């Protein structure tokens, strides 16, 4: 899984135009971008069976080009009207994930090609893979390839509960809490068999499925028909896929537990769906679930981030530690096309995010690609 030499040269150039400096930062970002946006493609015409599946970095290149185009004309980016004193579970979670992403989301309308692709993929995942879609065919779908994701006992409990509210419905209600200034809508509210109400937030995380046939490269043993050992190895790899539940997602569930007054919520579930692509379509292959409730510990976590977020909005700026920039987070962030802080050139974050900071930097065009420019030969 890698870029072609020409792709890598051009990608480095584009990141330098965006503002990246150290080569190690460029390498790290491109590596994680490939993991996020790279895709396996099948070529049925390939005579060599070893070359029928190939990994493409085209989507990575498209994303980098789109970001450069966006930052050529920052004044064209539409500004967003802030929520004012109100806040949502999503905004609190976004602040905990990254104050820069929080400020960008509150400041700009996300109309870039790259951001729209993320939004469209997210909408598609919610429509096709979400709990409500699976709830209807939970008992009917007997295919073990897909039923792996339902092996978690908590998923079974959710499936057996009565759905009360679905936040992604066309006319989904917004919940308000005038006392706390909260506004938002959870993914789901259910009523369990004990009569208790609970809230569910689901997240989709792209994770390579070791058992996905389209993610496998044929080897000579497989060509000889020796598949049993290989399949067992892949099954073991899949079973070892672990879950780490992020604080920002936990905060979303806590925000609903604390602020929703229409239903007496007793607890909440944070559901992680690991998904991959098969024949060009996403599918879920594993689920992780964390149960949450309001305790002294979780309330302390909630109040800490809420106070920090409100202070940031009131002051209009906070310090930014460039040593905490995480290439993995930045490459996977849907707001990355608008972000200048991933370049480590800024030591403060402003609220609202300053469109004047969006710019391109001078960079030398790769000599290996100069012959491809118009007027420089064929």
Could you describe the 3D structure shown?
This protein has helices at residues 5-18, 23-37, 58-72, 89-97, 99-107, 113-128, 131-136, 144-147, 153-159, 220-223, 228-239, 247-259, 296-315, 327-332, and strands at residues 39-42, 53-56, 162-166, 175-177, 182-184, 188-191, 197-206, 265-278, 281-292, 317-319, 348-350. With 378 residues, it is α+β, with helices and mostly antiparallel strands. The mean pLDDT is 85. The longest helix is centred in the C-terminal third of the chain and has 20 residues, at 296-315. It contains 14 helices and 11 strands. The protein has a 5-stranded mixed sheet with strand order 3-6-7-8-9, with helices on both faces. Strands 1-2 form a two-stranded antiparallel ribbon. A two-stranded antiparallel sheet has the order 4-5. The protein folds into 2 domains: 1-86 and 317-378, no CATH class; 129-315, no CATH class. It is globular, with a radius of gyration of 23 Å.
What's the gist of this structure?
With 378 residues, this protein is α+β, with helices and mostly antiparallel strands. 40% of the residues lie in helices and 17% in strands. It folds into 2 domains: 1-86 and 317-378, no CATH class; 129-315, no CATH class.
């Amino acid at each position: 899984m890698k870029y072609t030499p020409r792709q890598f040269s051009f990608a480095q150039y584009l990141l330098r135009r965006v503002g990246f400096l150290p080569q190690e930062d460029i390498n790290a970002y491109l590596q994680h971008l490939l993991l996020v946006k790279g895709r396996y493609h099948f070529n049925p015409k390939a005579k060599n069976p070893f070359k029928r599946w190939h990994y493409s970095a085209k989507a990575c290149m498209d994303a980098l080009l789109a970001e450069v185009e966006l930052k050529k004309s920052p004044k064209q980016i539409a500004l967003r009207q802030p929520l004012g004193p109100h806040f949502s579970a999503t905004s609190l979670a976004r602040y905990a994930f990254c104050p820069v992403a929080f400020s960008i989301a509150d400041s700009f309308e996300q109309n870039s090609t790259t951001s729209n692709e993320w939004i469209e993929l997210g909408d598609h995942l919610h429509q096709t893979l979400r709990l409500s879609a699976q709830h209807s065919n939970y008992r009917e779908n007997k295919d073990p390839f897909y039923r792996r994701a339902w092996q978690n006992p908590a998923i079974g409990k959710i499936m057996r509960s009565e759905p009360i509210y679905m936040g992604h419905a066309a006319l989904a209600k917004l919940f308000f809490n005038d006392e706390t200034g909260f506004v938002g809508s959870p993914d789901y509210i259910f009523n369990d068999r004990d009569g208790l109400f609970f809230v569910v937030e689901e997240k989709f995380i792209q994770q390579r499925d070791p058992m996905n046939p389209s993610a496998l490269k044929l080897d000579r043993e497989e060509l000889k028909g020796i598949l049993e050992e290989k399949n067992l190895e892949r099954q073991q790899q899949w079973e070892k896929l672990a879950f780490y539940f992020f604080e920002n997602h936990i905060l979303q569930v806590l925000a609903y537990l604390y602020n929703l007054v229409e239903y007496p919520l007793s607890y909440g579930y944070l559901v992680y769906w690991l998904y991959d692509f098969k024949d060009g379509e996403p599918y879920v292959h594993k689920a992780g679930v964390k149960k949450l409730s309001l305790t002294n510990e979780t309330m302390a976590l909630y109040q800490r981030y809420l106070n920090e977020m409100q202070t940031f909005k009131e002051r209009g700026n906070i310090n930014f530690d460039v040593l905490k920039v995480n290439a993995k987070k930045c490459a996977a962030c849907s707001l990355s096309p608008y972000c200048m802080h991933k370049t480590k050139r800024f030591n403060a974050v402003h609220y609202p995010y300053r469109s004047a900071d969006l710019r391109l930097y001078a960079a030398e065009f790769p000599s290996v690609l100069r012959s491809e420019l118009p007027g420089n030969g064929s």
